[in-house]
Amino acid sequence: MPPLCQTILLLIASNVFMTFAWYGHLHNLSDRKWYIAALVSWCIALFEYLLQVPANRIGAQVVSVAHLKIMQEVISLSVFVPFALFYLREKWNWNFLWAGLCMLGAVYFMFRR
Question: How many domains does the chain have?
Answer without folding.
Answer: 1
